[in-house]
Write a structure and sequence with these properties.
This protein has nine helices and ten strands. The protein is of the alpha/beta class. It folds into two domains: 69 residues, 2-Layer Sandwich (60s Ribosomal Protein L30, Chain: A); 164 residues, 3-Layer(aba) Sandwich (Alpha/beta knot), CATH 3.40.1280.10. α1 packs parallel to α2. It is elongated, with a radius of gyration of 20 Å.
Amino acid sequence: MQEQENQIYGLRALMEALNAGKTIDKVFLQKGLRGDLFKELLPLLQKAEVPISYVPVEKLNRLTKKNHQGVVANLSPVDYYNFEDLVISVTESGERPLFLILDHLSDVRNFGAIIRTAECTGVSGIIIPKRGSVSITADTVKTSAGAAFRVPICKVDNLVDAVYYLQGSGIRVVAATEKTNQLLYDEDFALPTAIVMGAEDVGVSAAVLKVVDGKAKLPMVGEISSLNVSVACGVFLYEVLHQRLARP
């Protein structure tokens, strides 16, 4: 694996980055790591709620050729927003909320394309899980054509809890899924809305499908049964925009 420009390696360097308030996407720690600096680092990681993976030293050696001291971290190119603060800000602003929930996407370029479309269609914020999901990388920023710096993006511990919070804030949550007879054109997207898009391989998770307010699908007339998630997301977002332009 090639070294990334946004990598930090070494115990002291990571501690300094955390103390400086840098946004860390993920930390790889060598299994069995010990020592005083390591003991100082752990509370900082816990306070910042940074996802940690404990890996063998061979993994770290593939991530960087530098003297990593058992620690490699990925810096985020952007700062993430606090989820609850963003929802409150949007709902109190007077604008019609439009949130996008991405349920464990894995492809950074799909993520970038979705962010770009989200910016063009007036999405209020994008919500992704902290673990098991794509994060913002240099490739994401490039594919988004810079939109990653313009659309608020939040990381949450649990998507189901995020759905409940949105619902409690008066926002209707609709999942894009083929497991329904309802077409997206039959949904009332003029209402405050959050749309859930699923992972590339499995779609929206069963746990999230159980708690959403509605489910909608795209009409398909070809032999291929699904679209790329970024394309499908674009269709959904432009249907929202179409309805809202018709009903200002």
